[in-house]
Amino acid sequence: MKRLCSQTIEIALPADKVFAFVANLPQWPVWVSFIVCAQQHGEPQPRPLEPGQEIDVCLRRGSGRDCEQFEVVQFVSGAFVCLEGSLSAARRIEFRFEQRRSATRLNARIGYPVFGGALGALYDTLFVHSAVNGALRRSLAALKTTLEESELPKSRTSGQGGDGEEAPSGSAKHTAVA
């Protein structure tokens, strides 16, 4: 049996910027809460994603880790990335990007197999599915925060005035006029 978790989020940036960050595999551990490491298989230096590439992904599962190999099965620059597990087509990681005026709607889906018949399905429904869905939701929130905060003007994020000098706490900054 195959299960699918899906989450959508709006990010106040153009789709090309969001896509460029998401397509950068070494950045995945920064925002994907259940990924420890992601890299192209056998590649000493990262290169742009393309269909047919093999990707090594180290996943956090409870207190343990599993490393799995995925293949880039669909890739449309700026619009869609789909990775499929090498050992199971049920294992999928997908990202869809839609430009919405000045924002980007990002839909992320995680697919995984469920083993053990009815008992396995029940266990998945009670424990696993909600945990994976929650991790995906938190990951997209982290992505949104990371990207939107990186785009804030420096004067708003640094606590400094316009000329680089820090204004004293609780006082206004004055400029003398000659």
What does the model show?
The chain has 178 residues and is of the alpha+beta class. Mean pLDDT is 86; it is low at 161-178. The chain starts with a strand and ends in a 20-residue tail after the last helix. It has helices at 15-22, 28-31, 117-150, 154-158, and strands spanning 2-11, 35-40, 54-61, 64-76, 80-85, 92-100, 103-113. The longest helix is centred in the last third of the chain and has 34 residues, at 117-150. 15% of the residues are buried. The chain contains four helices and seven strands; from the N terminus they run βααββββββαα. It has a seven-stranded antiparallel sheet with strand order 1-7-6-5-4-3-2, covered by helices on one side. It has one domain (2-44, 51-148): START domain (Alpha-D-Glucose-1,6-Bisphosphate, Chain A, domain 4, 2-Layer Sandwich).
Short description:
By secondary structure, the protein is an alpha+beta fold. The protein is 29% helix and 35% strand. It has a 7-stranded antiparallel sheet, with helices on one face.
| Form type | globular
Number of DSSP strands? Answer: 7
- Count of domain modules: 1
Proportion of strand residues: 35-45%
Q: Mean pLDDT, rounded to whole units?
A: 86
CATH class: Alpha Beta
Which second-level CATH architecture applies? Answer: 2-Layer Sandwich
pLDDT < 50 stretches = 161-178
